[in-house]
Each structure stands twice: as structure tokens, then as C-alpha cells.
Design brief:
The protein is α/β, with parallel strands linked by helices. It has 2 domains: about 140 residues, abc type-2 transporter like domain (abc type-2 transporter like fold, 3-Layer(aba) Sandwich); about 200 residues, no CATH class. Helix content is about 70%, strand content about 10%. Strand 5 and strand 6 form a beta hairpin. The longest helix is centred in the middle third of the chain and has 36 residues. The protein is elongated and about 95 Å long.
């Protein structure tokens, strides 16, 4: 083997480490998931929509509107009861109810717009959750086009404005038991997404910054040999772990407050011009809700810092510590993207389990959940995050008593602990040796 190949082999071996491969794999998984999600949106758009139609008009133009609905979607209900239609849509996962008014044809022929009342069935508040209703709304455009072509063909009107815009719509969105008059699912999703975007950004930034502080601190102390000095002092290892976590948590909370103040001013100005008053529909947060959001944020922060502390223990120096922040970064990005694009309730069961297992996701979910009084999800998320934090702290305290704290490797004196999770981590570090 030549010297060139030996040097190349050495460099490849040093670069292809778990700390460099894991972030790349995570990025690939994220992009693959986004690709599948976008492909799923295209499939959803191509699927035939399920709608309900209540036909109150006996005229020719009303019949034309009904035929457009019938040809462009699957009509699962065509009776006369609004409540029965909504119940049918709920059972069949339908998207919308169209009610053609009794004077539909008469108004258009009298150079007045014909009215169609629309009930939108909204499943979630994410950006992707408004896609089905957007697909169904294209039926309304087709109704306009078909009626306009009929008026022109049979010279049924001399009013150009009616030919260009023959119908008008009265919209009502049904979302989680609330009926919101005068607004569409797209508008609601846009407003809720803008409000819910604040917390995911704050959580991600705080987790990334505070986590990098903890991991880098461990790597720096190992590199400068200050950790060895600290361990020789008459201080309990538990106090060292909790002291480091508490310091990083305080810094993280200060950052969170700064971010929240800045974001609140930004979004108050952004939403000040909004025509949707969420308070009129009961979608507001009170003092208890903000308290729960703060507790959820703190629990998620401590969970993340505990996880970063464990990862920092395995870092040999400052350079190695820098690469270990990447998995935490991408782990925080996953729930941020998920909560922006879709709602937790509309995710598949497997995706819900994965999202729930990531402690950083719970404060991101909490704001939107509390708007609809879903306290069970928020409280269970807080409980899970606290348990996750206690487990990570316990593991960190145990590892602080081992040689791996100073060497970054498992020594022969580190025997099995009896705790599967700790044994697995120690075993992985031993194999890397």
C-alpha cells in the first residue's frame, strides 16, 4: 500500500465517524419525509372530494350548478337537513357542504348574484390541513365558469358584471366543534399558523443555543483539564450536574423571554391588520394557559439540556463537542416543521407517537392545543417531558462517576449497571474505542 493510499485511508477513517454521519443521515430522512409529505399532498389533490349538496332551487341554473358538483366530486348527501349533511361529512371524512339557495336561478336572471352557502369541514390548523378545502373550492370556480358560458350561449343576460361573476358565497368553517361564520379554512389556517409559529422558533433557538453551551462547556473543560480540578473538590457529582443544568436553563429561559418579547411585537403588528378576530370564537389564551406553556417550555428545555449533558460527557475535546450539537439541532427541527405544516390531531398514529416522544415538540404543540382547550395533551406532554428530564439527569449523574467522564471512553472498570439504557450507551462507547 502506497503512502498516498495510507494517508487517504487515515483521513477517511477519521472523517467517517458517527458524529459526522448521523447529522447527514438525519438530514436525508427529513428531506425524504418532506418529499413524501408533498407527494401525499399531490395525491390528496388528485383524489375525488366528498361533498354534500342541498338543492333548494328548481331553476335551470341551479340544476347546472348541481351537475358541476356531481361531475367534480362524490356527493355523499343530497337531502335537505344541514345537520344531517354535516354529520354525514364527519362520518365520511368529507370536505364541504354546498347549499344552493331557492332563488338562485331567479336572482341571476334578474341580474343579481345567485348565492351558495358553503360549510367547510376543517380537520386541522396546519398549512397542509387546508389543502382538501382548497381542492373543493375549485368546484365553485367551475360553477361560475359553467353558468357564465350558459348565459353567453343563450343570451340570457345583458349585464356584463353578472356574466363575469354570477354567484356569491356565504362561508362558514366548522373546526373542532366551533362554527366560524364568514371565514374560510385557508384564512383560519394562515392566522393560526402565524400565531403558532412563535413557539416552535423560540423552542428551537433556545434548545440549540443552550444545548451547544452545555456540550461545548464539557468539551472545553476536558480540553483545559479544568474538569479534573472540579472533580477533586469536595463537591457531590449530583451538585455538579444540577448546577451545570441549572445555569444553562437560566440562560435558556432568559433567551426565551427575549425572543418572546421580540416575537410578540412582531406578530402583534403582523396580526393587527388581520380581519379574523379569534377571540370572538373563543380561541384565546388566559393566564393559566400561558403558565402551562411556560412550564412546558421549561420541562422541554431541561430535557434537552439533560440529553446534551450526556452527549457532552462522550466528547473528548471542544472540537468533538461541536459536532455533537448537530443531532440536537435536527431533533428540534423535526417537530418545528411538523407543527408548521400540519396539526398533531391529523397526523398518522405512528407520526404522533414519534412526535410525542421528542420532548421539544410539546411546547410547540401546547399553544395551538390550549386554544381549543385540549388540556389533556398539554398536561401529558409536560408529565412526559419531566420524566424524560429526570431520566437524563439520572444517567448524567451516573456517568459523572465513571472514567468515561474524563476519557470519553469506557474503561474496563466500568461494568454493567443493570440499567439497559445506560449499558447500551456505555457499550456503544466501548465499541468506538
Amino acid at each position: 500500500m502506497s503512502n498516498l493510499s495510507k494517508i487517504a485511508k487515515k483521513e477517511i477513517k477519521e472523517m467517517l465517524t458517527p458524529s459526522t454521519l448521523v447529522p447527514i443521515i438525519i438530514i436525508a430522512i427529513i428531506f425524504a419525509s418532506l418529499g413524501d409529505m408533498m407527494g401525499g399532498v399531490e395525491d390528496e389533490l388528485s383524489e375525488e372530494q366528498k361533498i354534500a349538496v342541498i338543492m333548494n332551487d328548481e331553476g335551470a341554473l341551479g340544476a347546472i350548478a348541481y351537475s358541476v358538483f356531481d361531475q367534480g366530486a362524490e356527493i355523499v348527501y343530497n337531502g335537505t337537513s344541514v345537520q344531517e349533511a354535516l354529520d354525514t361529512l364527519e362520518d365520511t371524512d368529507g370536505t364541504s357542504l354546498f347549499i344552493i339557495s331557492s332563488d338562485f336561478t331567479e336572482n341571476i336572471l334578474s341580474n343579481q348574484t345567485g348565492n351558495i352557502t358553503v360549510y367547510w369541514m376543517m380537520k386541522g390548523a396546519g398549512i397542509m390541513d387546508s389543502v382538501p378545502s382548497a381542492a373543493a373550492s375549485s368546484l365553485l370556480s367551475n360553477v361560475d365558469t359553467t353558468i357564465a358560458a350558459t348565459l353567453i350561449s343563450y343570451d340570457m343576460s345583458d349585464n356584463a358584471s353578472i356574466i363575469l361573476d354570477p354567484t356569491s358565497y356565504t362561508e362558514t368553517t366548522v373546526f373542532k366543534g366551533k362554527e366560524m361564520d364568514g371565514i374560510s379554512p385557508t384564512t383560519i389556517a394562515s392566522v393560526l399558523s402565524q400565531q403558532s409559529l412563535v413557539m416552535p422558533l423560540i423552542v428551537m433557538m433556545v434548545i440549540i443555543y443552550s444545548g451547544s453551551i452545555v456540550i461545548s462547556s464539557m468539551g472545553t473543560e476536558k480540553e483545559n483539564k479544568t474538569l479534573e480540578t472540579l472533580l477533586t473538590m469536595p463537591i457531590r457529582r449530583t451538585s455538579i450536574v444540577f448546577g451545570k443544568l441549572l445555569g444553562a436553563a437560566v440562560v435558556g429561559l432568559i433567551m426565551a423571554v427575549i425572543y418572546m418579547i421580540g416575537m410578540s411585537y412582531y406578530y402583534s403588528g403582523l396580526l393587527g391588520s388581520s380581519t379574523v378576530d379569534l377571540a370572538s370564537y373563543g380561541m384565546t389564551l388566559d393566564l393559566l394557559d400561558y403558565t402551562l406553556i411556560g412550564i412546558s417550555l421549561f420541562a422541554a428545555l431541561v430535557s434537552g439540556l439533560g440529553l446534551c449533558m450526556i452527549m457532552g460527557i462522550f466528547a473528548k475535546n471542544y472540537k468533538a463537542a461541536q459536532t455533537m450539537t448537530m443531532p440536537i439541532t435536527f431533533l428540534a427541527m423535526i417537530p418545528m416543521l411538523a407543527t408548521m405544516l400540519t396539526d398533531f390531531d391529523t397526523l398518522p398514529l405512528f407520526a404522533q407517537v414519534v412526535l410525542f416522544a421528542i420532548p421539544f415538540s410539546h411546547p410547540m404543540i401546547a399553544m395551538r392545543a390550549l386554544m381549543f382547550d385540549d388540556y389533556t395533551l398539554v398536561l401529558s406532554g409536560i408529565a412526559y417531558s419531566l420524566i424524560f428530564a429526570l431520566v437524563t439527569m439520572f444517567i448524567a449523574v451516573y456517568l459523572f462517576r465513571k472514567d468515561i467522564l474524563l476519557t470519553g471512553k469506557v474503561s474496563r472498570t466500568d461494568k454493567k449497571t443493570g440499567f439497559p439504557l445506560i449499558d447500551m450507551m456505555l457499550g456503544m462507547a466501548k465499541k468506538r474505542k
